[in-house]
Amino acid sequence: MIARWKKALAAVTACVLSFGMLAACGSGTAGAGANGGEVERMTLVVWASQEDQVDSDSWLQTMESEFEKRHPEYDITWKNQAVASADAATIAKQDPTVAADVYTFASDQLGTLIGAGAVGQVSDPTMKQLKKQTAGNETMLNTVTAPDGNVYGVPLAGNTWFMYYRKSKFTEQDLTSLDAMLAKGKVSFPLTNSWYLPAFYIGAGGTLFGEDGTDAESGVQFGGEIGAAVTNYLVDLRNNKNFVNDKNGSGLAGLKSGKVDVVFTGNWDAATVRENLGDDWGVAKLPSFNLNGKQVQMRAFAGSTVYAWNPYTKHPKAADQFSAFLSSTYSQKRHYEMRSVIPSDVELASESDIKKDAVAQAQMDTIADTSVVQPSIAPMSNFWGPCENFGNSIYNKEVTHDNAAKLTEQWMKSYENTL
């Protein structure tokens, strides 16, 4: 792979201020260092979450100081600005020439950033780092892989959902099977939520924009005989007396009241689960379900929070190096220690403090073993609505065993003119 920063623009338009005083295109000059070597002086603008840069002792500032120690060839003036990962693409795509030199973004925005020419391809050294950090975890690598096959950015943290449960209700063996849990306790699942519903169809072999989520022409393939079988399973799930549709927080409330024994959600609800269940709380990766006599593994969408660099920066090599450092094994470990953010780095899964963190293990295991990458290409925006509508049709009993195959195909057909 040719390092993108080696092909960076030789000249970039002068820095300007925009987006409410957000500035980019760090300036720089060269000068002699204390040891007689040449030092490159520069200003780097960094977008990060507010929580990561509260004061001089925060994670971002700490990482900047560490980066300076490791790179004495640079004399860096840092300009940190609070831009959440969810907002980065919206701002950057307006005019990438005034976006930050280094920034964080949510992986489902990758397609938007590539389309705007606002994100740089990782260098060869960064790719070497990333391969080590994602060894055996293809999903996490795929969150930053574009349809062109190139990689843009390094994941800092993963994002997915998994399972919390009432320990006193189930054996360890029960936790591997959704049907076994339904036989023993009340299971709450967001059937009408299009981020969760695909887990059944993808688990059974359905694909969304191809095997790796980057082939727009492949579209949504949840139909056929297998798709109809999954829909029939979901009709039975809806009719099961121990099924509870999780909507507007009803699952978590049910844990507290005793009316629910299992919920499917992510690390953001860990504190609430612990509060609601006390010492009786447990957490695990996703179970399988029985489809026509065969065990089929549920598979959740997974994404990541990413650090990347802007190809319009005047310091592409330093920007690439710093964005990679912010998502390095060292930085992810410090992020966990300082802010309890679960890392994506596979090497950290065996760290003693992370190994003892059951929620961290469930998230990392789910991403590695029972997930698929959430597609980031533009057509994905048209997937959610019809999927939610179909989930509602199942829940409202409009979908039955008699019409399951027909309505599944109608659902697939609804995508033909939108994707």
From TrEMBL:
Q: Which SUPFAM superfamilies match?
A: Periplasmic binding protein-like II (SSF53850)
What UniProt keywords are attached to this protein's entry? Answer: Signal, Transport
**The organism sits in which domain of life?**
Bacteria
Identify one Gene Ontology CC term for this UniProt entry: ATP-binding cassette (ABC) transporter complex, substrate-binding subunit-containing
Q: Which GO terms describe its biological process?
A: maltodextrin transmembrane transport; maltose transport
As given in the record, the signal peptide range reads: 1-23
Q: Name one Pfam family in it.
A: SBP_bac_8
For this UniProt entry, the molecular function terms from Gene Ontology, in alphabetical order, are: maltose binding
Q: State the similarity comment.
A: Belongs to the bacterial solute-binding protein 1 family.
- Name assigned to this protein: ABC transporter substrate-binding protein
- Which species does this protein come from? Bifidobacterium callitrichos
